[in-house]
Write a structure and sequence with these properties.
binds zinc ion; 7 helices
Length: about 250
Amino acid sequence: MTSGFDFHYDDFTEAHYRSVLKTALDRYRFLPFEEFNQTGQICLWRHDVDYSLQRAKRIASIEMDMGVSATYFLNIHSEFYSALGELSSEIVREIIGMGHRIGLHFDAGFYAYKTWSSEEHRTILLREKEVLEGMFGVQIGCYSIHNPTAVTDWNSDETVVCDMVNVYCREIRTQFRYVSDSNGIWSKGRLADVLEQRPPKIHVLTHAEWWTPEALSPRERISRCIDGRARFLHRSYDQFLLDFMRPNVGQ
Ligand SMILES: [Zn+2]
């Protein structure tokens, strides 16, 4: 039998997010992945956007208020959001406008229907990098693999691939203490505890969708994203008909 206590539901609130971010800021220099080789107390602070751009925008705005610049990794194959959609891409531009960077969150599962050569791997990675660069007019200098333990043949120890820093490269894996909130629970230790231990270099992965105003179970946090997006799409549909004076039959 498990409970919210076992999985630290209370950790995953916006208030706690501010608290751990403040602690990290007091102790570390926040750097882009492209500069991970610098010396000193260094923090790589990253978000993989798996489920919700709206949540990403909220966390991005908390970070902006606290003077933090983070990297948001976008998955162009997500079933939960469309980074390239007309309205959603506006959110991406807002996040960039807040001073954050964009990385490629590469969904190897999308390509799992066949085996690809290493040359094809590079062509595909480069194409996805160029899609994001072309759409948002920014340099994509790093990438993270989505679910790297599920589809493993895209994993690499190489530091730089297609002019992008591979966040799971051997150098970063061996030099940095890694903390992640994957699946809405802590893996590799609670972030607050790890910050207390003050490792010299730290790589923090959080997903914005796991951090909500109130404490919820991971399943409830995902439902919140799905239901919120459904409401957003209903509003968009109604507004479109209103804007163009079309009948909204059945409303
Ligand atoms: Zn992911």
